[in-house]
Specification:
The protein is of the alpha+beta class and 252 residues long. The protein has a single domain, classed as PPM-type phosphatase domain (Phosphatase 2c, domain 1, 4-Layer Sandwich), CATH 3.60.40. The protein contains seven helices and eleven strands. Strands 2, 3, 4, 5, 6 and 9 form a six-stranded antiparallel sheet that branches. The longest helix has 22 residues. The structure holds manganese (II) ion (MN). Manganese (II) ion binds next to helix 5.
């Protein structure tokens, strides 16, 4: 690959238990060398949600890094790594009674030159910020989002529903899973956010943009997003992973 097209990547991630819960079932991970980044939000009784999210994070990062990039396309690597993470969580859940039924959401980003790939399962989201405008990349695999997309419910009805955290796809709850994959082009200055529903139940794309743009560093922006959820009561765990793309040193 032409190194002049490579972008430098800054990454900051934080997770917070929130204001109500006593355990944190969210998790994040990344490998800067392989350019893979992930946020997971686990569910399951007792400590099973934490096991599910931690396992999915570890397995997708390791598998993605392990697949030879010269032999497989980036889409293929991401897809295979997500399916592998699903298998590992599922197998673990089948082997131990206390882990039966556990699962996790997963939202992942990988970078191929100036291309961005996003893969997701569940209702953790990816957002894209360019020129002060923020847009949601992923579609939630949740009961309410699907009701809204099919026209069976309007946004107000969905927002008032008690079924906020019912997801329709998850990593680890079945032998196979169908992730969505999104692709886009990157420019210097672009920002990508991977985040759990602990943030997005309180913040829409506009609020996310305003919060990030009010900060001078990526570290401050990540903390400000977590603080935003906590200002609103943070009933759930909150996780934010921010990526910023900068001109590579050689071309800057
Ligand atoms: Mn959550």
């Amino acid at each position: 690959m032409d190194s002049s097209t490579e972008l430098k990547i800054d990454v900051v991630a934080l997770t917070d238990v929130g204001c109500v819960r006593t355990n944190n079932e969210d998790g994040f991970g990344y490998d800067l060398a392989s350019r893979i980044f992930v946020v997971c939000d686990g569910m399951g009784g007792m400590a099973a949600g934490e096991v599910a999210s931690a396992t999915a994070v570890k397995e997708i990062v390791e598998k993605f890094s392990e697949i030879d990039g010269t032999e497989a396309s980036m889409e293929d690597r991401l897809y295979r790594a997500i399916l592998y993470a699903n298998q590992q969580v599922y197998q673990l859940s089948q082997g131990r009674e206390e882990l039966r039924g556990m699962g996790t959401t997963l939202v992942s980003a990988c970078i191929d030159g100036r291309r961005l790939l996003i893969g997701n399962v569940g209702d953790s989201r990816a957002y894209f910020l360019r020129g002060g405008v923020c847009a949601q990349i992923t579609h939630d695999h949740s009961f309410l989002a699907e009701q809204v997309r099919s026209g069976s419910m309007n946004l107000e009805e969905a927002q008032a529903s008690p079924l906020q955290s019912v997801i329709t796809r998850a990593i680890g709850t079945g032998e196979s899973v169908e992730p969505d994959i999104f692709t886009g082009d990157l420019e210097p200055g672009d920002i990508v956010l991977l985040t759990s529903d602990g943030l997005t139940r309180y913040a829409d794309a506009k609020m996310i943009a305003n919060t990030i743009l009010s900060c001078t560093t990526l570290e401050q922006a990540c903390q400000a997003l977590i603080d935003r959820a906590k200002q609103y009561g943070a009933v759930d765990n909150v996780t934010c992973l921010l990526l910023q793309f900068l001109p590579s040193e050689e071309t800057a």
